[in-house]
Specification:
CATH topology: Rossmann fold
Distance between the termini: 44 Å
Number of strands: 9
Number of helices: 11
Strand content: 15-25%
């Protein structure tokens, strides 16, 4: 692992041209409007997690297509009117178990930890429990990146991002949560989801976006051989006449286009030796973010980024954000 991307001085100024479809805004407006015909049906069932200081709720709600999405809602015991962090999960992982996510409740915040549909069977430490009933409309390379990739209407991440937007409404519906103080957070795939939701969901007041995936697709697939981006390369290596359709689809889900619409305060992080989410792809989004922003740079790390050190920074950031 070495410094393989642009020098830091160039990263700080890197603002690539965006491949944005003319109907980007209407596509997402129509997608969320279509989803809204399904009642949210948020259900919070008390769950015995053997955690004396935290109330845990087994949570389900209706995501894209009315499909059931699972989550954990966790609240400091006895708390009311608290801010909430809506946490999204990295690629291949699921929501795991409540004790995996105690940092936010320990800080005095509620947390909604959202499963990613169709994932959670890859990482044995973070199992998921939410299926993706929709089958997609084309052959796919192993993994989730090319499911439905020939048409934005059928692309997998249309459903995932919609689920994630609706999850914020779920958090706002819990009686212990202050609906005016909801933050979205995640790393890698979770960071990409948080980035998109912060641009699409007006209830969000801030975003923690760590080493975001699904961002600056064209550059990512050209400069890294690492999965999951390489799933797209494998697909194109056999579906040789599909590149134009593939990149058109991806333009509706590219983090660059969401970043340009992100107006809430955002705290990013980037790792300069990250082969999975190359630093130029992260900086491209950060530099385009339209709202107040800051970025933590980890010069000697790969995709793990700042790990616990980044969480420490986020906790202090939240404390300052909600002071008083």
């Amino acid at each position: 692992m070495a410094l393989f991307d642009l020098p830091l001085e160039e990263l700080r100024e890197y603002r690539p041209e965006r491949d944005e479809p003319a109907d980007f805004d209407s596509f997402w407006k129509n997608t969320l409007s279509e989803a809204s015909v399904h009642p949210l049906s948020a259900d919070f069932r008390p769950y015995d997690a053997a955690l004396a200081g935290v109330e845990v709720f087994e949570t389900t709600f209706a995501g894209w297509g009315g499909h059931p999405i699972n989550a954990w809602m966790m609240v400091p015991r006895g708390a009311t009117g608290v801010p909430c962090v809506v946490q999204y999960i990295g690629y291949g992982g699921g929501r795991g178990l409540p004790h995996d996510h105690l940092v936010w409740p320990a800080g005095g915040y509620a947390a909604l930890v959202v499963d990613t549909r169709g994932q959670g069977a890859q990482h044995h430490n973070s199992p998921g429990s939410t299926a993706d009933p929709y089958g997609g409309q084309n052959m796919q390379a192993p993994g989730m990146m090319t499911r439905g990739i020939l048409d934005p209407e059928h692309y997998y991440y249309r459903r995932v991002f919609t689920d994630a937007v609706r999850a914020v409404d779920v958090a706002a519906a819990h009686p212990a949560v202050d609906a005016d103080r909801i933050v979205v957070a995640g790393g890698s795939q979770g960071g990409a989801i948080a980035q998109a939701v912060a641009a699409l969901q007006p209830k969000v007041v801030a975003a923690f976006i760590d080493v975001p995936f699904l961002t600056h697709f064209r550059r990512a697939v050209e400069i890294t051989d690492a999965d999951p981006y390489h799933e797209i390369v494998r697909f194109l290596s056999t579906q040789r006449d599909s590149a134009e359709r593939v990149f058109r689809t991806l333009s509706y889900f590219d983090g660059l286009n969401f970043a340009a619409r992100g107006e809430v305060p955002a705290l990013y992080s980037v790792a300069l030796m990250d082969l999975i989410c190359p630093p130029s792809t992260v900086y491209a989004a950060y530099n385009l973010w339209a709202g107040q922003k800051d970025i933590t740079v980890w010069p000697w790390n790969g995709h793990e980024g700042g790990g616990g050190r980044q969480i420490d920074i986020q906790l202090r950031h939240l404390r300052d954000l909600f002071a008083g």
